[in-house]
């Protein structure tokens, strides 16, 4: 954060760091731009904010070519329990994986750079839905100017790699460099409590830190993939948690889903109306550490605004216990919201 900023700017910046929804982020950027003091010391960040505003509003509208829209929006509104970005070098099988677990028709082809635009899809894990966003491959010869903004709403990333393929290590290193230029950093630590404070220690509000799982794909072709991982770690120094999968045969994909929901700290909450049984068909999902108030916000903004208390049935409370809006919910809780 630049020196000598006002409380109003600080609040706007904090809101920006918390916001996931692209429209909301754009609002926050406008507020940052409005409240930032205009002096020499903020020149740099002001220019940055302006660029981000321009980029994000263009991304929400879709790219332009000669005055007409030439493609879909390049930033995907988060949906489901978490947004998971698929990153990797060309031909690693990102689109094949996406198609397999979400039922999408993301173009998966034997040639590189088949994927041009972000492609969202929902991956079911039991009764939880994760939003997977397929992305174009990142490589020096194929620059993606909008990738930094596209990754802002992501909660984590799958770094998909075919470790048996010669050249993968160089390509994965190049990918890290491309991301670092946009101040996007892949990290091996998965936070225990949600992600709401992500990047808070970085003075740059636009820095993105993505908890990363290395997904070693195409294990149907390579029985020695465990040794490949050892070599990969030795040569690159990257120490991400990893999982072996095959987008072709489906091996390892169920475990992958469970690994994600548990490491993202996805918490399922079911709601009920007084005097009626709970609706167990589809949960509301929040992250570990989130509260009754956060669930109410997902139900309806009026419910959230007028919330007085809740009754909760679950493992960490006695049946029908009355709790306040700040009560932290646990996986499997049934909530009755009272306003
Ligand atoms: N044998 C095998 N081939 C795969 C697997 N995943 C992807 N492929 C193939 O690898 C090629 C590149 O896949 P694609 O999904 O387009 O890669 P992307 O560029 O990372 O999106 C395609 O020919 C796929 O059929 C896998 O798990 N096993
Ligand atoms: Mg692809």
Could you tell me the CATH topology label of the largest domain: Rossmann fold
Unique bound compounds: guanosine-5'-diphosphate, magnesium ion
CATH architecture of the largest domain: 3-Layer(aba) Sandwich
The total of beta strands comes to 14
Distance between the termini: 39 Å
What percentage of residues falls in helices of 4 or more residues? 25-40%
Write down the Rg: 21 Å
Molecular structure report:
With 339 residues, this protein is α/β, with parallel strands linked by helices. The protein folds into three domains: 63 residues, Methane Monooxygenase Hydroxylase, Chain G, domain 1 (Up-down Bundle), CATH 1.20.58; 181 residues, Rossmann fold (3-Layer(aba) Sandwich), CATH 3.40.50.300; 72 residues, Beta-grasp domain (Ubiquitin-like (UB roll), Roll), CATH 3.10.20.30. The strands form three sheets. Strands 3, 4, 5, 6, 7, 8 and 9 form a seven-stranded mixed beta sheet that branches. The protein has a five-stranded mixed beta sheet with strand order 11-10-14-12-13. The protein has a two-stranded antiparallel ribbon with strand order 1-2. The chain is globular, with a radius of gyration of 21 Å. The protein binds guanosine-5'-diphosphate and magnesium ion. Magnesium ion binds next to helix 4.
């Amino acid at each position: 954060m630049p020196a000598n900023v006002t409380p109003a700017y600080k609040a706007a910046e904090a809101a920006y760091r918390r916001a996931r929804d692209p429209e909301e982020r754009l609002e926050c950027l406008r507020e940052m731009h409005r409240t930032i003091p205009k002096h020499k010391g903020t020149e740099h960040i002001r220019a940055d904010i302006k660029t981000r505003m321009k980029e994000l509003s263009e991304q929400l509208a879709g790219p332009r070519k000669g005055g007409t829209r030439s493609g879909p929006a390049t930033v995907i509104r988060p949906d489901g329990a978490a947004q998971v970005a698929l990153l990797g070098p060309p031909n690693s099988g990102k689109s094949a994986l996406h198609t397999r677990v979400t039922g999408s028709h993301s173009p998966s082809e034997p040639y590189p750079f088949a994927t041009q635009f972000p492609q969202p899809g929902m991956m079911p894990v039991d009764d939880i839905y994760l939003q997977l966003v397929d992305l174009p491959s990142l490589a020096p010869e194929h620059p993606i100017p909008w990738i930094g903004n596209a990754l802002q709403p992501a909660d984590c990333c799958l770094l998909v790699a075919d470790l048996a393929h010669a050249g993968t290590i160089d390509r994965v290193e190049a990918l890290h460099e491309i991301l670092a230029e946009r101040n996007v950093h892949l990290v091996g630590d998965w936070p225990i409590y949600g992600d709401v404070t992500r990047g808070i220690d970085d003075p740059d509000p636009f820095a993105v830190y993505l908890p990363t799982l290395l997904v070693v794909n195409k294990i149907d072709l390579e029985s020695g993939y465990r040794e490949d991982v050892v070599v990969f770690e030795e040569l690159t120094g990257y120490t991400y948690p990893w999982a072996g999968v095959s987008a072709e045969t489906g091996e390892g994909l169920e475990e992958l889903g469970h690994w994600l929901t548990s490491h993202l700290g996805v918490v399922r909450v079911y709601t009920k109306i007084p005097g009626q049984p709970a609706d167990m068909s589809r949960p509301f999902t929040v992250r570990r550490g989130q509260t009754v108030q956060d669930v109410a916000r997902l139900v309806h903004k009026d419910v959230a605004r007028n919330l007085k208390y809740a009754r909760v049935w679950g493992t960490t409370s006695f049946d029908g216990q009355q709790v306040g809006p700040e009560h932290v919910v646990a996986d499997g809780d049934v909530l009755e919201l009272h306003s």
